[in-house]
TrEMBL record:
Ca(2+) 1 binds at residues 67, 70, 72, 74, 76, 88. It is found in: Secreted. It comes from Triticum aestivum. This is Peroxidase. Residues 25-330 form the Plant heme peroxidase family profile domain. Removal of H(2)O(2), oxidation of toxic reductants, biosynthesis and degradation of lignin, suberization, auxin catabolism, response to environmental stresses such as wounding, pathogen attack and oxidative stress. These functions might be dependent on each isozyme/isoform in each plant tissue.
Length: 330
């Protein structure tokens, strides 16, 4: 990690400074006076967490995405439901979220070092970056200073998170509502190089696709048929909840470009992945990165899009609070 800091490309630094300026108070080194070891503490804990459970890299990256898409990156995803309020994490799209315990563990270390200083929203952002680095993906500088929100709503999570069944126009609409564009969509979908999915996220493609005349019960024609056969061996029915499939089979713990090779071969797991080849612009990107000759370009693009995503709807200054524990309000 230390070495990667030294080798940090200047271009990225400049870019991060520019994008954080746009949303005011987020800054690189925000805790340099108040908690100088914050990033180091997160990095060291993450190294231990991923060493013990490499498959947590995906879930920790996804937590930050879900956080940012609902009410902005404000750690609302971490809050537990209370009497009279069903929280985001209990919304349907969140059923499969994991990694909450690891976030709480890292936060506890930070509280021990500098109580009440580092927000859960920043912890999530740093952990997602470190998860990618530890999975052999790119490093990018994280501007800090996010504050934690006081509201978490299951209904919002269900409305604002992109559904796995989404096509490009729908996904573009949802991304645009967060200030993210078509390129961010195709680039950030590359996060599906990490992790696993449950059958209900995609098994309708195997058993119950609706044909043009409205009858259901078909196999999705946009899914490679050999691959569909393989997936059916795993997912015995549309609502089989027990089985997991790797989204980037063969390298689901490594952050690389093989996701795009799968998508290009009609082996993207979700409809939202498959949809990327039905729009000429996103298809072009998928095919370019799938060649394996532009890994550096994808890593740079991913870093840029993650920085943008980490800026979505942040609370700064005196807004919100710095939670002591990420799952409950102070
Ligand atoms: C483009 C729209 C997106 C859709 C429709 C989508 C949908 C999904 C779904 C349905 C799952 C599987 C849940 C399960 O069955 O367990 C999943 C997993 C995952 N998603 Fe996405 N996602 C999208 C974008 C993103 C973005 C932007 C990121 C991060 C930058 C991301 C990171 C992940 C990761 C890492 C996993 C694996 C989690 C694990 O291993 O438990 N996704 N996504
Ligand atoms: C199959 O799809 C149809 C139409 O979308 C839906 O009404 C039905 O409930 C689905 N069946 C299963 C088993 O999911
Ligand atoms: C509907 O379309 C499917 C395949 O596209 C076909 O097998 C089926 O016979 C059609 N049903 C009707 C009622 O036209
Ligand atoms: C791809 O999707 C974008 C956003 O919906 C749209 O503006 C563009 O026209 C689409 N391109 C093609 C070739 O369909
Ligand atoms: C991890 C987590 O909080 N999962 C919850 C998601 O939502 C369902 C209800 O929709 C809960 O049963 C899970 O515990």
């Amino acid at each position: 990690m230390a070495i990667r800091f030294l080798l940090l490309p200047l271009a990225l630094l400049v870019l991060a400074a520019a994008s954080s300026a746009a949303v005011a108070q987020l800054e690189i080194g925000f805790y340099s006076k108040t908690c100088p070891n914050a990033e180091k503490i997160v990095g060291e804990e993450m190294a231990k967490i991923i060493a013990a459970a490499p498959s947590l890299a995906g879930p920790l990256l996804r937590l930050h995405f879900h956080d940012c898409f609902v009410r902005g990156c404000d750690a609302s995803v971490m809050l537990e439901s209370t009497e009279g309020n069903v929280a985001e994490k209990d919304a349907k799209p969140n059923k499969s979220l994991r990694g909450f315990g690891s976030v709480e563990r890292v936060k506890a270390k930070l509280e021990a070092a500098c109580p009440g200083i580092v927000s859960c929203a920043d912890v999530l952002t740093l952990m997602s970056r470190d998860a990618v680095v530890l999975a052999k993906g790119p490093f990018w500088p994280v501007a800090l200073g996010r504050r934690d929100g006081r509201v978490s709503s299951a209904t919002e999570a269900s409305n604002e998170l992109p559904p796995a069944s989404g096509d490009v126009p729908l996904l573009v609409k949802i991304f645009a509502s967060k200030g993210l564009n078509l390129k961010d969509l195709v680039v950030l979908s590359g996060a599906h190089t990490l992790g696993t999915a449950h059958c209900p996220s995609f098994a309708d493609r195997l058993y119950n696709t609706t044909s043009e005349n409205g009858t259901s019960g078909f196999v999705d024609p946009s899914l490679d048929s050999e691959y569909a056969d393989k997936l059916r061996l795993k997912c015995k029915s549309v609502d089989d909840r027990t089985m997991l499939s790797e989204m980037d089979p063969g390298s689901f713990k490594t952050f690389d470009t093989s996701y795009y090779r799968h998508v290009a071969k009609r082996r993207g797991l979700f409809r939202s992945d498959a949809a990327l080849v039905f729009n000429a612009t996103t298809k072009n990107y998928v095919q370019r990165i799938a060649t394996g000759k532009f890994d550096v370009e994808f890593f740079r693009d991913f870093s840029e899009s993650m920085i943008k995503m980490g800026d979505v709807g942040v609370l700064t200054g005196a807004e919100g609070e710095i939670r002591k524990k990420c799952h409950v309000l102070n």
